[in-house]
């Protein structure tokens, strides 16, 4: 996110008073690995199956169903994602929702993240905001098609 100097006072108050959680050491390791430009680097993070060639090993069941999955045509190697989701997706979603020339994006006033459906992640985010601020009047959500909210 960019600077919040140009953000409205309300937005700065809401975000600045929420204490930052400690960084997860597992994701710190992943970030350090991705930032390292050495050709000899080794990923010692959790959540990845690797073969003797140090490449991701795709489980046989995934290889079997992958050709039938017309939606998944990505470059995915089935590694764990960053906590907020893939940065390219987040950036593209911001521009799609608010427009590429959005002042809110340019001023760093937009916070987007990806959450897995059905996990309650969005509800937990709202609960976090409500814990520190009585802002129920500006939290909007939806009831899923399954009837589970």
Write the layout of secondary structure elements.
Layout: H1 9-16, H2 25-35, H3 60-65, H4 87-98, H5 103-106, H6 121-132
N-to-C SSE string, H for helix and E for strand: HHHHHH
**How helical, in percent, are the residues?**
25-40%
What fraction strand? under 5%
Envelope shape? extended
Q: Are there runs of 5+ residues with pLDDT below 50, and where?
A: 1-9
- Count of distinct structural domains: 2
> How many strand elements?
0
**Structural class of the helix and strand makeup?**
mainly alpha
Main β sheet profile: none
| Alpha carbon gap, first and last residue | 29 Å
Gyration radius, to the nearest Å? 19 Å
Number of helices: 6
Average the pLDDT over all residues and give the rounded result. 72
GO molecular function, one term: L-aspartate:2-oxoglutarate aminotransferase activity
Protein name: Pyridoxal phosphate-dependent transferase
Family: Belongs to the class-I pyridoxal-phosphate-dependent aminotransferase family.
Keywords: Aminotransferase, Pyridoxal phosphate, Transferase
């Amino acid at each position: 996110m960019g600077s919040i100097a140009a953000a409205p006072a309300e937005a700065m108050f809401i975000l600045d008073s929420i204490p930052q959680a400690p960084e997860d050491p597992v994701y710190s390791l992943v970030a350090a690995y991705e930032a390292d430009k050495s050709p000899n680097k080794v990923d010692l993070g959790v959540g990845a199956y690797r073969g003797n060639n140090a490449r991701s090993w795709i489980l046989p069941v995934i290889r079997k169903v992958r050709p039938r999955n017309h939606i998944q045509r990505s470059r995915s190697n089935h590694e764990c994602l960053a906590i907020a989701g893939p940065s390219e997706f987040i950036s593209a979603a911001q521009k799609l929702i608010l427009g590429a020339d959005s002042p809110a994006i340019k001023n760093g006033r937009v916070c987007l993240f990806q959450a897995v459906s059905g996990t309650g992640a969005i509800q937990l985010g709202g609960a976090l905001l409500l814990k520190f601020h009585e802002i129920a009047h500006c939290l909007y959500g939806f009831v899923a098609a399954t009837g589970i909210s």
